[in-house]
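Teaching assistant here, posting this on the class forum so everyone can see the example we discussed in section. The complex has two components, and the goal was to see what a joint structure prediction looks like when all of them are supplied at once.
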Amino acid sequence: MGFQTSLRISAAGMSAQRHRLNVIASNLANLQTTRTPEGGPYQRKDVVFQAKPMVDSRNESLMESGQQKTLSVEMVKVIADSRPPIMKYQPEHPDADPQGYVAYPNVNAIEEMVNMLSATRSYEANLTMMKTTKDMVNKTIEILKV
Amino acid sequence: MTVNRLFDNTTNLLAKVMALRARKAEVISSNIANIDTPGYKARQVTFMDQLQDALVESDRLPLVKTHKVHLPVSRTITEIESSIQAQESSLAGFDRNTVDLDHEMAALAENSLNYNAAVQMLHKKLNILKNAIVEGGK
């Protein structure tokens, strides 16, 4: 426990935000995709984060007291957004339905940009935390140089 | 404690402060990592009150627990433990997450500055000790 735990938690936070950024990139890239291997238009994807208790093999028994557990974070799954596709009247499109409407992905570019900024900021906050922890460790090591 | 022959009470206090601050850094990193976790409650570490009490108490005559049913006597510096509380906040977003990033970053800065100050003081104390030993040998 201590600084290693801090570094591991920050790393987990950065990793989770990077996964989120990947999913956002995929949403933006598929803004106009009307064909997918599963059939139908691309469905917007989102991530589910979950707080995860840190497990320390050395003193697991010390960490059993519920409240005192240190929580890390992990991405548990990628879910598909169930909002309906956006219908556009485009009778000339090969994927148009008999009424002439094409189902476009339920992705909103602005919403994705906002999420992207949020993920970037969160990533940076984790990075700052990691830098600070490293500085603290370096300072501690300097004690030995007396 | 046997190390007391070489290290005084201040050294013990600094060591304790460093340990508590390291624990606090852990909880702050946990809050920051969970900034986008739905339902996560920001957690805070407190130990300042206990530390103050222990410092005041260390100037008095020590009370000793002589029977197991005695009320707990006030703790010495080395016995202080940090306590963690989850924070309920009315500012929670729609995902019921109560992490306030500005607050966490400020706490992070304060914590690391205080930690570094403790390290610096310990460094100085060890230097003084070293000086005494080196000069004594001349």
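For the discussion questions: Strands of chain B lie at 43-46, 83-86. The mean pLDDT of chain B is 84. Think about how each of these relates to the inputs above.
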